[in-house]
Amino acid sequence: MAQSLDRLKESPSQTAGPYVHIGCAPNFIGIEGVFDHDLGVSMVNDDTQGERISISGQIFDGTGTVLKDALLEIWQADSNGLFNSPGETRGAADPNFTGWGRQPTDIDSGLYRFDTVKPGRVPLQDGRLQAPHVNLWIVARGINLGLNTRVYFSDEEAANAEDPVLARIEHRVRVPTLIASRESDNYRFDIHLQGDKETVFFDI
Amino acid sequence: MDNGTPETGAFFERDRAWHPKAFTPDYKSSVVRSPRRALLSLENSPGEITGPVFGHDMLNENDADLIHNFARPGESALGERIIVHGRVLDERGRGVSGALLEFWQANAGGRYRHKKDEYMAPLDPNFGGCGRTITDENGNYALRTIRPGPYPWPNGINDWRPAHIHFSIFGHGFAQRLITQMYFEGDPLIPLCPIVQTINDEAAVKQLVALFDKAHATPFDSLAYKFDIVLRGRRSTLFENRMEGN
Questions:
Q1: Which of B21, B32, B70 is the closest to A144 by Cβ?
Q2: CA–CA separation, B190 and A149 (whole Å)
Q3: Is residue B151 among the annotated active site residues?
Q4: What pLDDT, in 10s, does the model give residues B65-110?
Q5: What sequence ranges are listed for the domain Intradiol ring-cleavage dioxygenases (chain A) (predicted)?
Q6: The predicted structure's pLDDT at residue B1
Q7: Residue A5 class from Cβ within 10 Å (0-12 exposed, 13-18 middle, 19+ buried)?
Q8: CA A98, CA A118: separation in Å to the nearest integer?
Q9: Residue range A127-183, pLDDT digits in tens
């Protein structure tokens, strides 16, 4: 008989449902007094290094309707390309930058917004440099397993052109779905769950 | 507090046949919210492997006690008092220390404290419905709450959710991020629920059903349920001087 590999299975995912805010952003929906503040609402302070930017946008379903019940999280490098994490082996990240943000979409407009800094470049495991980007995760009612994507920046044309991940996208017409467009200090990044403009999502 | 000795290997590939598919038409909300194109497979890089630290210093004493964390002084939430406890493990069976668990649920009548929930069951003024905790060095966690009620939802004409508690789990890496739900052993609504049915494998559903655990009941206070959660495991980092360990 074959030997067991002795591995457990990852717990299967379930949708976060329409009330994910009760657990992950309770103050946002008016459940106050349980937690002092919602986690991930602030990524920067006055001493954070790097260029201050914001990333904002909306999420659209397959009919073009805006999602108003979604939750987004981002995880990104600091301005020098380092992650504020015990698993970061390449150096010490900026202690004044968390690298992690969590924001709900607005209940009326569906807009989300992160106030952060422009990330530096991070290498793949093989050493090739990636273009500056932000890792993004989306959960909501109707999403059975959280969706992973990336936000790249429209004013990083040279870096984007040599990014090994963007280069892997066979259908070149889909590359722009990962690139946020700069409007002064804000980058607009809309996400399309389905349809002609379906955002590229990753199996990471 | 830290999250233990950092591991820096890439995570095992996710078994997407074990997880629910994106497009599951019997769960109607998935129909227009499911990506239809193939996901782009991506090897882990530092952004997927790493994650922030969540320390015990961010917790308040009552954060994991839903019976009291929203209640007025001297009062408590209504319902059947329960303890839910277990371990957060990775696929290698190792306890995940320092994992952030956040949980939310309906009250004993099956109603959420949310302005969009219009179910006729009453709100409990002493129940907020949210809590959080962080696993200890061996991956153990525990919370105290009231058993949530089942409730109807606008999917089919007469669809009811089984009693459940939502769990959001953040372990050591962004690629390990997971949201799931815990169901209760013996609930007849489990096999009838379209959200449960998004999972294709009976063994996978069973993994989300907490077992009644009388041994951990507190006399004259609470019954108990045991619920273990498994997050993705990592390939160990290859060390040239320790090839046998890989």
A1: B21
A2: 32
A3: yes
A4: 999 999 999 999 999 999 999 999 999 999 999 999 999 999 999 9
A5: 55-83
A6: 45
A7: exposed
A8: 13
A9: 999 999 999 999 999 999 999 999 999 999 999 999 999 999 999 999 999 999 999
Q: Which residue has the tokens 């914001």?
A: A54
Fold adopted by B29-34+47-243: Protocatechuate 3,4-Dioxygenase, subunit A (2.60.130)
The full set of domains in chain A, from first to last, is 19-192 (2.60.130.10)
Q: Does B128 touch chain A (CB under 8 A)?
A: yes
- Give the CA radius of gyration of chain A: 18
Q: What confidence score (pLDDT) does residue B123 get?
A: 97
Chain A nearest C-alpha distance from B109 (Å): 16
Q: Is B166 a catalytic residue?
A: yes
Domain boundaries, chain B: 29-34+47-243
DSSP character at residue A161: H
* Secondary structure, 3-state, chain B: CCCCCCCCCCECCCCCCCCCCCCCCCCHHHCCCCCCCCCEECCCCHHHHCCCCCCHHHCCCCCCECCCCCCCCCCCCCCCEEEEEEEEEECCCCECCCCEEEEECCCCCCCCCCCCCCCCCCCCCCCCCEEEEECCCCCEEEEEEECCCCEEECCCCCEEECCEEEEEEECCCHHHCEEEEEEECCCCCHHHCCCHHHCCCHHHHHCCEEEECHHHCECCCEEEEECCEEECCECCCCCHHHHHHC
Q: Are strands B140-146 and B209-212 parallel, antiparallel or unpaired?
A: unpaired
Identified catalytic residue from B112, B119, B177, B235? B112
Which chain A residues touch B104 with a CB distance below 8 Å? Answer: 19-20, 22-24, 26
Rg of chain B on CA atoms, in Å: 19
Contact criterion met (CB below 8 Å) for A38 and A164: no
> How many angstroms separate the CA atoms of B98 and B4, rounded?
7
Nearest to A146 among B6, B117, B179 (CB): B179
For residues B130-148, b (16+ Cβ closer than 10 Å) or e, as one string?
Answer: bbbbbbbeebebebbbbbb
**Rounded Cα–Cα distance for residues A49 and B93 (Å):** 39
Q: What is the pLDDT of residues A68-124, one digit of tens each?
A: 999 999 999 999 999 999 999 999 999 999 999 999 999 999 999 999 999 999 999
Contact indicator for A70, A104 with CB cutoff of 8 Å: yes
pLDDT tens track for B14-39: 999 999 999 999 999 999 999 999 99
